[in-house]
Design a protein that fits this description.
The protein has about 400 residues and is an all-alpha fold. It has one domain (about 1-390). Helices cover about 65% and strands about 5% of the residues. The chain contains 17 helices and 2 strands. It has helices spanning about 1-25, 30-45, 70-90, 100-110, 110-130, 140-155, 165-175, 180-190, 190-210, 215-225, 235-240, 265-275, 280-285, 300-330, 340-350, 360-380, 385-390; strands spanning about 65-70, 380-385. α1 (about 1-25) crosses α10 and α3 (about 70-90) packs across α5. The radius of gyration is 22 Å and the shape is globular.
């Protein structure tokens, strides 16, 4: 499913939306040659060879699988409460990404407080998967408690100013289902339909409130859809400024802001204070000489600016080959058997599923995420047979 999620986003961000924007904005000509290279790499890496169907006997229902420890539910609900209290205490309800105020606030938060925010948000999806992947391995009341805790935490996650969080959560979860199983679950499971309807309703309400700030519907669509979802936006600005080469810039300085990902480093604190935490900020501030903290972007920027069209092809090819390996791993039913492999799979899928992120930043972020997820699976899970548990 992960391959499809990446491909669908790529088509929307790199082809459909840029073409719509070009129709509405005079003088805007997105470099669609880059789109052609990117989509070709994704199709070759992910779909040139079909996934092999594992025989039924290859997936044993009685194999020992990871399941949450008995005390994990209490610990996680406690962390959920702490997360909500931190959001209230520091006024973090509105967290529009790119805000100078938020960049300064996050840089000055005490380390334990920042730890609560980061650990909760990074482990949210792995926790849900851990409790939901094998329904028979955890009591129903525990799964209901986890879902209620997640729902209760949504208002504290900046949803009022970041509708994409709902979409990101949904994509991160369905990435762990093969497409055919997802469609069957969607058809048979009314709870999934109800959850989807609730997410759509929340998304619509938040969108309508934001649309009221604009003079017209066309202004809203242009700013919040055509520009916001244009994955070629920064690439186009670089080309107009004469800073984009199809042969690549090989500008290693673009990786400088990634120092902000290293904990306890003074330079990292300074970078966070200045809002320079990704390669996107380097492009915006250093190359384009803009004072903006944020702009619409996608994974195409890093490999294309650094390595040109060849670098773009290789970068997207590698990403999609890894996504294909992940999908095969899920189809083989190997999730929740080996702790390290499961942590690696969870890290990759949740780290790469969002196409709006920086390509390089997505892979760098996987380092901390891997440590957290592997720690979760090592210290907070036990192994047991689904069949044995079901007979209790």
């Amino acid at each position: 499913m992960l391959r499809w999620l990446i491909l669908i986003q790529a088509v929307a961000y790199l082809l459909v939306v840029p073409m719509l924007r070009a129709e509405l904005e005079l003088g805007y000509h997105p470099p669609l040659i880059a789109t052609l290279i990117a989509l070709t790499a994704l199709l070759v890496g992910g779909f040139l060879f079909p996934l092999r169907r594992s025989p039924l006997h290859a997936v044993h229902s009685d194999v020992d699988r990871l399941r949450p420890a008995s005390w994990l539910l209490i610990a996680w609900l406690g962390l959920t409460i702490a997360y909500a209290l931190v959001v209230i205490r520091y006024g973090l309800f509105d967290r529009r990404q790119g805000s100078e105020v938020m960049a300064e606030l996050y840089a000055t938060l005490p380390l334990p407080i920042l730890g609560i925010l980061r650990v909760y948000e990074l482990l949210l999806i792995p926790i849900i998967i851990l409790y939901m992947y094998h329904a028979s391995s955890t009591p129903r009341w525990q799964r209901v408690a986890i879902l209620l805790g997640v729902l209760a935490s949504l208002p504290f996650m900046g949803l009022a100013d970041s509708r994409s969080r709902l979409i990101v959560m949904g994509m991160s979860l369905i990435a762990f289902l093969p497409p055919d199983r997802f469609l069957r679950q969607l058809y048979r499971n009314w709870q999934l339909l109800l959850a989807g309807a609730g997410a759509i309703l929340a998304f619509s309400v938040i969108s309508s409130e934001r649309a009221a700030r604009y003079a017209s519907v066309n202004d809203y669509l242009f700013s919040e859809v055509y520009v916001r979802l244009d994955g070629l936006n920064l690439v186009s600005k670089l080309r107009e400024a004469g800073l984009l080469s199809w042969w690549g810039s090989f500008d290693f300085a673009m990786a400088g802001p990634l120092l902000s990902k290293i904990p306890f480093l003074e330079a990292a604190q300074t970078a966070k204070l200045l809002g320079r935490t990704s390669t996107k900020q380097y492009v915006i501030n250093d190359l384009l000489r803009s004072n903006s903290f944020d702009d619409s972007n996608s994974m195409i920027l890093d490999p294309l600016y650094f390595g040109g069209l060849l670098g773009l092809f290789i970068g997207f090819l590698v990403m999609m080959v890894l996504a294909r390996v992940f999908d095969q791993y899920i189809m083989d039913g190997k999730l929740m058997i080996n702790r390290f492999q499961t942590a690696l799979a969870m890290t990759f899928a949740t780290g790469i599923v969002v196409f709006e992120n920086d390509w390089l930043g997505s892979f760098v972020n996987m380092g901390l995420l891997m440590l957290l997820i592997f720690g979760l699976l090592t210290f907070c899970t036990t192994k047991g047979s689904d069949v044995a548990l079901a007979k209790r």
